[in-house]
Each structure stands twice: as structure tokens, then as C-alpha cells.
Amino acid sequence: MEETAEIWELRLYVAGKTTKSVTALANLRKYCEEYLKDKYVIEVIDLLLQPQLAEGDQILAIPTLVKKVPEPIRKIIGDLSNEEKVLVGLNIRPAKRTE
User: From CA 18, how far away is CA 22, in angstroms rounded?
Assistant: First the structure.
């Protein structure tokens, strides 16, 4: 039997408990539970507490979601309310054809 239990490592950069940050985390958790059940880790980094960490992932806007693993590394900016955009952006679901 083939092991395909790769753990998705997701990092969400926020700046305090703003409405957008809270919404982004809630949306991210919802998508992960629905599409990556038991196969994900979410690390939340508050740049108000750890501003030096923004440099490593080149964070320019808040909130920003960074998918570290599996590669390729992907970034999505915003409150993650557009489910289709998030799933395609993270490579969880292929883009729908608009032909």
C-alpha cells in the first residue's frame, strides 16, 4: 500500500486579531478540515509580536497564507474568503476550465 500521507505545512501571517486575520484563520481551518483532514499543520505568526519573521517569507501584506509543504511554495493574500481561489492557489484543486 502506498503512503501518500504528506502533511501540508501552512503558515498564516497576521497582524493582531483584526477582523481580516480572524476571518482568514477561520476560513483556512474550514478548508483544511474539508479537504486536508488530518493532513495539515497551521502555524499562525503574529507580526505585531514577531515582526522579524516577515522577512523570511517576504511578507508584504497581511493576512498572507504561505504553503511551505508540499512544494512549490505558494502565497495567498487576503482573508481567504474566496474558496475556489484558495483551493486552486494551494494546489488542492485544479483550476476550473473557463472555455
Answer: 6
DSSP secondary structure of 42-88: EEEEETTT-GGGGTTTT--SSSEEEEEESSSPEEEES----HHHHHH
The pTM of this model reads 0.85
Cα–Cα distance for residue pair 60/44, rounded to 1 Å:
16
Measured CA to CA, the distance from residue 95 to residue 16 in angstroms comes to 32
What is the identity of the amino acid at 8?
W
Residues 53-90 have pLDDT tens digits of: 988 888 989 999 999 998 889 999 999 999 999 999 99
